[in-house]
Structure formats: C-alpha cells, structure tokens
Amino acid sequence: MDLSLSQEQLMIQDTARQFAQSELVANAAALDQHQGRETFFANLNKLAHLGFMGLNVKAQYGGTEAGVVAFSCAVTELAKGCASTAVTVSVTNMVAEVIQAVGSDAQKNNYLGKICNGEYLAAGFCLTEGGAGSDPSAMRTRAVKKGDQWVLNGSKVFITSAEYANLFIVWAVTDPDAPRGKGISCFLVEANTPGLNIGKREEKMGQRGSATNIVNFEDCIIPASALMGQEGQGFKVAVGELAGGRIGVGSLALGIGQAAMDYAKDYLGEREQFGKKIAQFQGLQWMLADRYTELEAARLLLMQAAHNKEQGLDFGRSASMAKLFATEKANDACYSALQMMGGVGYSQECPLERLARDVRVTSIYEGTSEIQRVIIARDLLKGIN
User: How confident is the model at residue 132, as a pLDDT?
Assistant: First the structure.
C-alpha cells in the first residue's frame, strides 16, 4: 500500500505551507482582534490566484482539479498559519463543489470561474437555522414559487463569511406538506439580491477573524433559474456535501493541533527547570509522544476519507470517523501544549492561547462529535434489526 503523496499533491501542500508562513502567520493575531481585515481579503485573493478556491473543481470551470487529498493537505497547512483563513477557504471550496455537483450548465459556467479566480472573495453555505442545527430537516425558511420566480423568507444562522461572501447556497422548504426532509430545495442567491440582509456578526470564542452572521431573507425574489438540482431534493444534497465538509473541518483541526504541538515542542527544548531542559522530563516526553501519535492517526483517517471521496467510493462513515477523531485529538493537542508551557502558553503573547480557542469549535460545527457518533453507529448497524 502506497501512502505517499503525488508530486502534484506535494507541490500544493508545500505551496500552502509556504503561504501560511509568509503571509498568514503575521496577520493571524491582528485578525483575531478584528484588525487586519484588508490583509485578510488580500490573502484570500492571492489564494484564489494560486488555485486554492477550487481545488476539486474541474479545469474547464477554472478550478485546479487537484482532488480531495490535495484539498485536505492544503487546508491543514493553511490552518497552521491562520484558522480563520483556512475555514474561509474550506467553506468556499465546499460551495464550489456543490455547484459543480448539482448546478446546471449555466450555473456552473456563470459562478464557478468567479469563485475560483477570486472575483468572488468568498461564498456562503446557508443551511443552519436557530431551530435546525444538528437536525437541518427541521428548517423553516420557505421558498414559494410565483410565476417564473421564487420568493424566499426566513433566517439562517452561523453563516461563515456572510459579511463578504458574494454568493450563497440557500436551503429552503418548497413543499411544506412533504414528509420531513423531503420537500427541501436549494438555491443560488447572489449577495446583492434585494431582500437578502446580513444580520449581526457573532462575537465568538475563537476563529474570530472569520465573520459569522445571521442571514435574513425578507421577500427575497430570485429567478426560477436559481434553483439547483431537482425541486424537493435539496436535503439529500446538503447531507452529501456536509460529509465532504467534514474532511475540510477535520483537516483544519489537524493543522491547528499540529501548530500547537510544534510550538510546545520547541519550547520544551529551550525552557530549563531544576538544572536541565524540561524536554528531558519523561512525563512531558510521554505527553508529546501521545499527542503526536494521535495527530498522525488523525492525518491517516483524513487521507483515507479524502481518498475514498476522490475515488468515488462511499465516504460518509470514513469522513465522520476522521472528523470526530481529528477534532477531538486536536483539542487535546492544544490543551496539552498549553499544559506543557504553563503560564507562558496562557498569555496572549503566545499563539497557543489563540490556537486553543480556534480549535474548540471544530468539534461543534459541520456536525458535533456526538452527531458524528450517531452517523457512524447508524452505518455500522445498518441491516441489523
């Protein structure tokens, strides 16, 4: 079994690593304090020109066509430099993949190039609602057909990049009488559409540089051509794409965890107590060994899930396993790194304080760890009465 990356995958990984270190690290702390927004936007544009906004999009639509494994590697490296930038890249890629998968030829030709080349700074994924988080089938946003138009009404919450996204994929109920999860459709809505209003920005614990907002639809009129895929089949699309999104979130968490442990490891080689380097203490050595072993296992789970998706194989269970393990172990890595560094790591002058806050949400969004366990168990018990 060959687990090595191809030359193209290595090149993308290395490019992402270099960009993270040369462009993202310097702005990450400022971005966390709601500063450095112009640099953040400039970096998103640069990443688009480097091909990172359409990593799994076909070249005919302006994408890199590098595949899911390359996407996972890229997000991991970007997250080492700035989690807020990495999540923006991950979600924008996810939106592009949905359009490629179920969009019409006109929709693909009209929007994918703009996402991939940076004309659109970012894209938003409008699924979650206040009463429909872990259970998106409970959504209440409505889309009513009127002639050759649809009228959207409702609210979406926790929408990544909403303030600066140019395009949104929006899920709404089109048949309220259909069985639960059946009468839902998805639409493409441009940011400047009348009736689409961006609400307040959430003040979050971590990933503060990435805007997260309420998105309101108040008699928002969109053309019939905005419908993506078949009417009433949108929930199936959402479930399928969330599985792919879990590879992105797991990869992001892995990068944060690796960055935290690398920082702590360097500190262990510098700090002295009781007349010797603290790296010589066995308790810290074992902690270091355990966390790096867990992160490597997370990486392999992510590579397996990414490979399965790339090969067109069933990847739902493997993506949930990878997301569950990677996010939980990345959280452990950040808190172990803080413990290794003591009071120094707790200070805002040290990036570990930010990394520990940034990593926490990864075991919540794109399906909580508890939901991942439900998905995994259901798949394992399939066919058993």
Answer: 85
Name the residue among 255, 254, 246, 261 with its Cα closest to residue 364: 246
Residue 272 is predicted with a pLDDT of 78
CATH number of 7-122: 1.10.540.10
Tokens of 313: 């194989």
Q: At what angle do helices 351-360 and 83-102 cross, to 10 degrees?
A: 30
Predicted confidence (pLDDT) per residue in 223-251, tens digit: 999 999 999 999 888 888 888 899 999 99
For residues 128 and 136, is the Cβ–Cβ distance under 8 A?
Answer: yes
Q: Are 175 and 235 in contact (CB under 8 A)?
A: no
**In this structure, how many other beta carbons lie within 10 angstroms of the beta carbon of residue 24?**
25
Cα 358 to Cα 29: distance, rounded to the nearest angstrom: 11
Domain 240-380 sits in CATH at 1.20.140.10
- Mean pLDDT (whole number) for 86-110: 96
Q: Tell me the C-alpha distance between 100 and 113, whole Å.
A: 11
Pairing between β-strand 123-126 and β-strand 167-173 as defined by DSSP bridges: parallel
User: Who contacts 155 (Cβ-Cβ below 8 Å, separation ≥6)?
Assistant: 129, 130, 141, 199, 214, 215, 216, 217
pTM of the full predicted structure?
0.95
User: What CATH class has 124-234?
Assistant: mainly beta
Asked whether the predicted pLDDT for residue 220 surpasses 80, the reply is: yes
| Residue 385 scores a pLDDT above 80 | no
* Spatial contact of 221 and 42, defined as CB atoms under 8 Å apart: no
- Residues with catalytic annotation? 366
Q: What is the mean pLDDT of residues 321-344?
A: 96
What are 149's strand-pairing partners? 146, 223
Tell me the per-residue pLDDT of 173-193, one tens digit each, with 9 for 90 and over. Answer: 999 999 888 899 999 999 999
Show me where the domains of the chain are located: 7-122, 124-234, 240-380
